[in-house]
Amino acid sequence: MKDSDLTALARALGAACRRRGVRVATAESCTGGGVAEAITRISGSSEWFDRGFVTYSNDAKQQLLDVPRETIAAHGAVSEETARHMAAGALAHSAADASVAITGVAGPSGGSAEKPVGLVWLAWAARGAGVQARRFRFRGSRAAVRRQSIAVALQGLLDLLA
User: Fold this and answer.
1) Which of the chain's termini has less CB crowding within 10 Å, N or C?
2) Which pairing describes strands 98-104 and 119-126: parallel, antiparallel, or unpaired?
3) Which one-letter DSSP state was computed for residue 152?
């Protein structure tokens, strides 16, 4: 996945948002704002990108996105439940119509047998339409896991708006 591929996805997302008159928000952990960065590469993205939340710590997830402490305690920061709360929280704390959330283990350290390096949960939400989440297991370096996550996040928003 190259920068040009991510830019092309972000450009397509912008066109879809403008056609539908919607704005998007991001809630990112392991990608550290990479989705927001890809989006804001596009001139005019302020018309359709509302804001991005980089919630790397558990405290940030709780404080900025209303992820319940109990959810993180029971399921962990890298879980379907946390990703779903992050996506819903991004909508609740923005003027966006759709959101994407990413939480995962980018590596090279931090993995476990239960949650190996490359495990990433993504969730997408739309106002009035609920939240959908998917589990991915990406391969490669830390940078590769992050780039694949960004690409899937952008493509998922495109699919949500289709």
Assistant:
1) C
2) antiparallel
3) H
Both structure tokens of 101:
């959330």
Over the stretch 86-122, which tens digit does the pLDDT of each residue have? Answer: 999 999 999 999 999 999 999 999 888 899 999 999 9
pLDDT tens digit sequence for 7-63: 999 999 999 999 999 999 999 999 999 999 999 999 999 999 999 999 999 999 999
Contact between 119 and 80 under an 8 Å Cβ cutoff? The reply is no
